[in-house]
TrEMBL record:
Keywords: Kinase, Transferase. It comes from the Bacteria. PANTHER family: AMINOGLYCOSIDE PHOSPHOTRANSFERASE-RELATED-RELATED (PTHR21310), BIFUNCTIONAL AAC_APH (PTHR21310:SF42). This is Aminoglycoside phosphotransferase (APT) family kinase protein. It holds the Pfam family APH. InterPro entries: AGP_Transferase, Aminoglycoside_PTrfase, Kinase-like_dom_sf. It comes from Actinoplanes campanulatus. Residues 32-265 form the Aminoglycoside phosphotransferase domain. One of its GO terms (molecular function) is kinase activity.
């Protein structure tokens, strides 16, 4: 499944060649496809490791962010996060950086894995509170740590308005895009966030939240969107969760009405752009985005 222009071809033979050349100590371990997202293809390596390979060379920068910052953050967070163990170099068979991480047991957050959504929402709020409380350690909102989801809503109005127009054309018969656009405009009309800049995961959707056998939050994965910025957009993915989790999350972080409205505007923006960009290439991701928009409309 190709999602982006210039995407690199990856299969087991490519990963084997990289391991043989750069990590011979792991070359004999079993290898199994472990999923693929919008940015990376992944393979489980043996029982304890995970190989992540960016879909395009320009999507390798997040791996460098993770190597630099995640080991510093891990001791300060209440659940597990990825631990990088090898930085792979570009090679003729795969001309991009790649990486190996420790495997983290767990399953994606879903109705099948979470027993108590209110407790899960409270767990997620506790994680976000801890993350946002970590000292910036000299990091600034610049370069690789300056993603759009940590900035202001007004800077995104052009492409969000375009994405909403595409949504209206593609899914307007099934989604109330006029109301979604009004929620976007409501967020734009508010003053900017008075909060200071914090560390943000910036993509806390259910596929990045791993649940343990007890049904509670066990790990937060895929930190490729790690940024420094204003926290409003961090809360946007909570509309991917059932209402009980959303309410517990909001209460746990004591989010006021203005922050909640800005977060809702971010939720509209990210989901609408996902529908527009991936409509023809990634139907599963489009379904996730449409479900988020439906949750916003029904809240």
């Amino acid at each position: 499944m190709t999602l982006h222009e210039g995407e690199l071809a990856v299969d087991e033979s490519v990963v084997r060649a990289l391991l043989d050349d750069q990590c011979p100590e792991w070359a004999g371990l079993s290898l199994a496809r472990a999923g693929a997202g919008t940015e990376n293809t992944m393979y489980r390596l043996g029982d304890e490791l995970l190989v992540r390979l960016p879909r395009t060379p320009d999507r390798a920068a997040p791996l460098r962010k993770e190597r630099e910052w995640l080991p510093r953050m891990a001791p300060l967070l209440p659940c597990a996060i990825p631990a990088p163990v090898h930085a792979g170099a570009p090679a003729p068979v795969y001309p991009s950086e790649w990486a190996v991480y420790r495997w983290i047991d767990g399953v994606e957050a879903s109705p099948e894995s979470v027993r108590d959504w209110a407790a899960f929402g409270a767990d997620l709020a506790g994680f976000v509170r801890a993350l946002h409380g970590i000292d910036l350690m000299g990091a600034r909102r610049a370069g690789e740590l300056s993603w759009y989801r940590g900035g202001g809503l007004r800077d995104c109005d052009g492409w969000v308005t375009s994405a909403l127009a595409d949504c209206r054309r593609l899914a307007g018969a099934e989604l109330d895009v006029d109301t979604l656009e009004s929620y976007w405009c409501d967020g734009l009309a508010l003053p900017g966030s008075p909060a200071g800049q914090v560390w943000m995961h910036a993509d806390l959707k259910p596929t990045n939240l791993l649940v343990g056998a007890d049904g509670r939050l066990r790990a937060v994965i895929d930190w490729g969107s790690l940024t420094v910025g204003l926290p409003d957009a961090e809360h946007s993915t909570v509309w991917d969760l059932p209402a009980g989790a959303r309410h517990a999350y909001r209460e746990g972080l004591e989010l006021d009405d203005a922050t909640w409205m800005r977060a809702r505007a971010w939720a509209v923006a990210v989901a609408a752009s996902g529908v527009a960009y991936y409509w023809d290439t990634f139907p599963e991701f489009v379904a996730e985005c449409r479900a988020r928009l439906a949750n916003i409309l029904s809240a």
